[in-house]
Amino acid sequence: MITHLLVEKVLVDGAWLPNQVLSIENGIFKNIASYPYVSDEVKAGISQHIKGAVLPGYIDTQVNGGGGVMFNHAPTYESLKVMAAAHLQFGTTTLFPTLITDDIDTIEQAANAISQAIADNHASIAGVHFEGPHLSIEKKGVHLPCYIRKLSKREMATYTRKDLGQVLVTVAPENVSCDVIRELVSHGVIVALGHSNAPFDVVEKAIEAGASGFTHLFNAMSPLTSREPGMVGAAMLHNSTCGIIVDHQHVHPKTVELAFKTKGPSELMLVTDAMAHVGASDKRIAFFDTHITRTGDKLTTPDGTLAGSCLDMHGALTNSVNDINIALEDASMMASTTPAVFAKIHDRVGDIAIGKAANFVVLDSANTLRQVYLQGTKQFAYSAGHSSCDINCDNNDDIAQLSGFGASSDSRE
């Protein structure tokens, strides 16, 4: 059965098209056509008139947790369902669950959970991001130093599994050789650089070996200085994709503006680096042998170290538009198309286009999130004046089943 939706305006190939009919079949866009030119049969079959601006669903390549769950603490498929549903309510229709530095057993458990999600054709989970443990002690952030290590054969075997969807690995090039980077890339693994104190020349060699991205630009990496360009300088100079956390805690708005003017929307992508707090009311959540506390829009450990974010992708987009003065069309590209291209999933998501998944969000004239669609089905709808925690779903039973909210998790206290 084909569903026809009449939309007020839709973003297609970076341009706004007014009064379009989106035809969707089996969760895929089958046709996009201007209302005056579709057949009378299609007009008669229009099931809904969507007011507002329709944009591609958001794609987040760095999601540590959500809905009260941290992937490291409970590396199970049930946890992944909770995380995905928590972020879906904020417009993230595709995500890469992210496992930060941990022991090898947890890495393998996480890989098995991702394998289950991929085998189950989970609508939102496209792969996995292993952020560490092959990082720099000097730029470890909240990653535990006791787990930071060289990349072993056992880890290589996990990262190169063919049942995990797309695999992304963040490494520090001073801790991982160019030969290892080449081997990872030869197996289809995307290698990003981050949590590194490497000098510019070491970073350049890693890029030459196949590294294609940078994890949370400016944060936990060797800075750009007058005599040493560092990792930041290499990231800004090379044609590589840089994730950036636009929560106004990790990066100053003017620094984001500089990065945008240097890289542009095709090489700068929005990420959340979200912890379990997103989509949860908890202010304090366990984290390995300590805890992370939310104060306003900031997450810290007891010693004051910045610990990921409570940012969601719609918040990242609106911060970019409202505070950095990035055009909505460009911010949408940074939130959807650019991460899709970087993650090698652009053949099926990242744009509103024929043949791609009908994942999209609807914004009103103030860029407030109003509706979220996943594979052509409305998952969330918000009334005027809603808060980020107010969910008005057309089918609450289906969403509860999708999300797994309320599922128990084995938190590591």
Describe the structure.
Helix 9 crosses helix 10 (328-342). The protein has eleven helices and 20 strands. The chain is globular. The chain is an alpha/beta fold and 413 residues long. It has two domains: 2-56 and 351-403, Roll (Urease, subunit C, domain 1); 58-342, Metal-dependent hydrolases (TIM Barrel, Alpha-Beta Barrel), CATH 3.20.20.140. 27% of the residues lie in helices and 27% in strands. It has an eight-stranded parallel sheet with strand order 5-8-9-10-11-12-13-14. It has a seven-stranded mixed sheet with strand order 3-2-1-4-18-19-20.
List keywords for this structure.
Urease, subunit C, domain 1, seven-stranded mixed sheet, globular, 2 domains, single chain, 11 helices, 413 residues, eight-stranded parallel sheet, disordered C terminus, TIM Barrel, alpha/beta
CATH third-tier fold name of the largest domain: TIM Barrel
CATH superfamily of the largest domain: Metal-dependent hydrolases
- Poorly predicted regions are 387-413
Radius of gyration: 21 Å
Biggest sheet statistics: 8 strands, parallel
Secondary structure: helix percent: 25-40%
Which percent band covers the strand fraction?
25-35%
How would you sum up this structure in a few lines?
The protein is an alpha/beta fold.
